Amino acid sequence: MTQIKLFCPATIANLSCGFDVLGLCLDNAGDEMIVRKTEQKGVRITKIVGADLPMETEKNVSGVAALAMLEAYESHFNTIDFGFEIEIYKNIKAGSGIGSSAASSAGAVFGINELLGQPYSRKDLVQFAMQGEKLASGNAHADNVAPALLGGFTLVRSYAPLDIIRIDSPEELFATVVHPQIELKTSDARSVLKQTVSLKSAIMQWGNVGGLIAGLYTKDYDLIGRSLHDEIVEPLRSVLIPGFDLIKQTALENGALGSGISGSGPSIFALSRGKNTADQIAKAISEVYEKMNLPYEIHVSKINPDGVRVL
Ligand code: ADP
């Protein structure tokens, strides 16, 4: 095999009570990527369609993640006398809050791993994809690249050592994600956070994280709904997103189990049981942004159990 074509899924991180630790993988929103073996050594980005992103390997997250992986491969296994080129077909807008950079980082390392004969597991690949995230945000976080590579829900239990747990989710669980077309800088979304939390808030938060995980394992939709509550970050960040309270309220009135900020915003997600409810929520929240005259994009997707996949 000398070439592989991939679907690189969008992801929702900072899932309500799971700020910085819980994420999920979407099924029908994502980029495509072609990774090709070349005679020339190294990694080159040869084509980017659909977005204005840097072509230089060291400035594109897919290039940085690929280089991190090849460096580890050559030091652990053997040196290689060929290289790789990457074509990126972007559908996920950078800065949307649904893991645009993570899709590219995860795709690059997955593709190269396939072309090398799978020396690494999907879980092993997370550490390399995280290096792409470091380029995008200054922080090698795993809460988007883990669900992009592993599918389902993922929990980043710890970074030192890296401990990622993949969590199955009930089959009828659907996500509705709306992306209002405004720019919300991650740095601004970070600057409103407080560095300390009260014990009372922390207790509520970890109660809900435990409840959410238990609800996913036992397919208890009511428990999932009761647990989708963010006591700590959402109250501070939601003020930066136009219409957030109304969108959330509309989602809940239309049957959502819960709703919150996707990533660092401005996208807003709602989880629901069944596609009909997810579609109904999409219709109702679209009307809110139409009335506000705010352009938006909307996705309805089941949870993707597999992560990056070969097309
Ligand atoms: P979000 O998660 O909010 O969708 P990201 O955290 O993915 O957004 O941030 C995207 C940042 O990463 C932008 O500054 C963008 O220029 C940079 N970037 C570099 N390479 C890529 C790539 N291949 N795909 C997406 N973003 C990239």
TrEMBL record:
| Coiled coil region boundaries | none
- Keywords in UniProt for this one? Amino-acid biosynthesis, ATP-binding, Cytoplasm, Kinase, Nucleotide-binding, Threonine biosynthesis, Transferase
Q: In which pathway does it act?
A: Amino-acid biosynthesis; L-threonine biosynthesis; L-threonine from L-aspartate: step 4/5
InterPro entries cross-referenced by the UniProt entry? GHMP_kinase_C_dom (IPR013750), GHMP_kinase_C_sf (IPR036554), GHMP_kinase_N_dom (IPR006204), Homoserine_kinase (IPR000870), Ribosomal_Su5_D2-typ_SF (IPR020568), Ribsml_uS5_D2-typ_fold_subgr (IPR014721)
A Pfam family of the record is: GHMP_kinases_C
Molecular function via GO: ATP binding; homoserine kinase activity
> Which catalysed reactions does the entry list for this protein?
L-homoserine + ATP = O-phospho-L-homoserine + ADP + H(+)
**UniProt record similarity statement:** Belongs to the GHMP kinase family. Homoserine kinase subfamily.
Protein name in the entry: Homoserine kinase
Q: What organism does the UniProt record list as the source?
A: Flavobacterium pectinovorum
- What gene makes this protein? thrB
